[in-house]
Amino acid sequence: MQDYYSSTELRDFASALFQRVGLAKDRADIIANVFLQADLLGFTTHGLHRVVSNLEWLQSGESKLSGEPKVLSDRGNCFNWDAQFLPGPWVLSKAIEQALSRVSEQGVVTATIRRSQHIACLAAYLPQVIEAGYVAILTCSTPGENTVSPQGGIDPLFSANPLAFAAPAGGYPLLFDVSMSITAGAYVSRAKREGRKMPSACLKDHNGKISDDPSAFKNGGSILPIGGADHGYKGAALSAMLEVLSMALGGYGRGDDSAKRDKEANSVFLQIIDPQAFGAKADFLRQTIALSNLWEQNRSDSDEPVRVPGQRAWANRTRQLRDGVELYPSIIKDLQPWAEKLQVPLPSVLTKS
């Protein structure tokens, strides 16, 4: 049986939890909304599921309750911030706000952020960019994390290095959020918790044996890069590119001994593009809409229609804003002890199905 919740009530609930551990309301509201947007789009491992870890970081001091990012450089069309371990969803939201305020004049605005606490679901930040009519490229890497092995290697080297992209394209945007590894660590943890195998042999144990057993990830095991055992050099190359964009341009990463102690703190690369800096908006949309339509009309090799990136996520978001949010079953269960501890009422269930 599935429970559904009001999106507004879920956001207010998460915000109240963050406020009870000392975060200012405006920051708590922003962070709660980012997590909600992830669940609305269907990214259930990096939405409200991440509230618990963020509460723990705020209470332990791993995430700072107050302060501002330090501006390391700013040329108008590009800037670099040191987040100084402020909550990732708040810092990145402020960077996007800054970029959006500049992009109509600059045409393209690029930003890097170092030492941001974990930013969670990248796609969750992009609806506001799409609705403003812009294109977004967003990626992050984790200097203190080694979970993905390179092609032919045994030892984990890269972090998962997700990449998100969004562009307006008519009824729904072209939108995706994918890791440069076959799967994300959160899915491995979920499979282990639920006592099941991975959908495919996407892991290596510490001896280099390929496996579908989540326990292979422990004690020096790794996740395979995109392309798997046969074509993983493609995923490894993309991982390197994204670490250059986020860590090297940001000036902080694997070359710094202190970064190895930063745990889940992210290095971030953000680029927002105004299509009208290059030509008429109608010309841009003519191309993106044509691409989406041709993709939709492609003959399917199964009973299911061909899936265009962004189509299902945007439909999920529209439906859940209207009918209620379908939370992954373990999320409320994990949040309940925090709700009791912080004396915040759990959100009410709209319907069950």
From TrEMBL:
Gene3D superfamilies in the record: 1.10.1530.10, Hypothetical oxidoreductase yiak, domain 2
Organism, scientific name: Microbulbifer variabilis
First and last residue of the signal peptide: none
Family recorded in the similarity comment: Belongs to the LDH2/MDH2 oxidoreductase family.
InterPro entries tied to this protein: Mal/L-sulf/L-lact_DH-like_ah, Mal/L-sulf/L-lact_DH-like_NADP, Mal/L-sulfo/L-lacto_DH-like_sf, Malate/L-lactate_DH-like
Pfam families: Ldh_2 (PF02615)
Stored SUPFAM superfamilies: L-sulfolactate dehydrogenase-like
Protein name per the record: Ldh family oxidoreductase
Annotated keywords: Oxidoreductase
DNA-binding among keywords: no
